[in-house]
Amino acid sequence: MNKILIIEDDKNIQRLLSLELKHKGYMVSSAYDGEEGLELFKKNSYDVILLDLMLPKKSGKELCQEFRKLTDTPIIITTAKDNVLDKVELLDLGANDYICKPFAIEELLARIRVVTRNRENSSDKQIYFENEIKLDLTTKKVFINQKEISLTKTEFLILEYFMKNRAISCSREKILTGVWGYDFDGEEKIVDVYINSLRKKMDTENKYIHTIRGFGYIFQYKED
Q: Do 12 and 115 fall within a single domain?
């Protein structure tokens, strides 16, 4: 089930979109201004962002730029502007698509399906983002707040596994299989050893890797 963040200050449009998307089986979060939208995004993971341009506190353009520094989550702009230059600018800022108001809900649903399908089918993704964390598969480097941190090969593989499975509860057995492979016959407690080391090196006050008592871990940004 895809999770969608709607950032729209018009309460009537917000309510309509939320009802229609929930009816189609999506999970929906709503924000009514730019700052609220950014805070919601930092605390949760989403599969698509529906972003209005004309927002209080932070504009849609500002948010689009900020989101692109943090994530590759698909962004669909909802705009009243039907100008080619405006659309080109939005795509250059990092939007995946745009839809002009007023629009039919069927068209929006089709665009959501396209951007999510394109993301799922992408086989050449080499960079993963989660808030201030950036993991580059090509260079095998990890950056936090644009500062590189030094990880062992296994620590890097564990973080890569988490970022590919963010917001998913992962048992120690699944992590062993995902990182070490099916033939690994070590004890599950080795997972805890490596994750403790990874947490210390990341020095992010345990905002990302959360323990699920008696089961395993979940990787998701949560600010206390």
A: yes
Residue 35 tokens, joined: 């700052």
Q: Last residue of some domain: 104, 121, 138?
A: 121
Distance in Å from the first CA to the final CA of the chain: 26
User: CA-to-CA distance for 86 and 93, rounded, in angstroms?
Assistant: 11
**φ, ψ of residue 150 in degrees (nearest 5):** -95, 120
- Local structure of 123: helix, strand or coil: coil
CA dist., res. 51 & res. 60, Å (int): 6
**pLDDT of the chain, 224 residues: tens digit per residue:** 689 999 999 999 999 999 999 999 999 999 999 999 999 998 888 889 999 988 999 998 899 988 888 888 899 999 887 666 566 777 777 888 888 888 899 999 998 988 887 666 554 568 888 888 999 888 889 999 889 999 998 899 999 999 988 888 999 988 988 887 655 555 678 889 999 999 999 988 888 999 999 899 999 888 65
In a domain, 224, yes or no: no
Q: What is the CA radius of gyration of the chain?
A: 19
pTM of the model: 0.57
What count of Cα atoms within 13 Å lies in the side-chain half-sphere of residue 178?
Answer: 18
Which residues are CB-neighbours of 105 under 8 A, at least 6 positions away? 16, 17, 20
**Which one, of 125, 124, 137, 144, lies nearest residue 198 by Cα?**
144
Which domain, by its residues, includes 177? 127-219
Task: State how far the Cα of 121 lies from the Cα of 113, in Å rounded to an integer.
Answer: 12
Amino acid at 11: K
DSSP state of 178: H
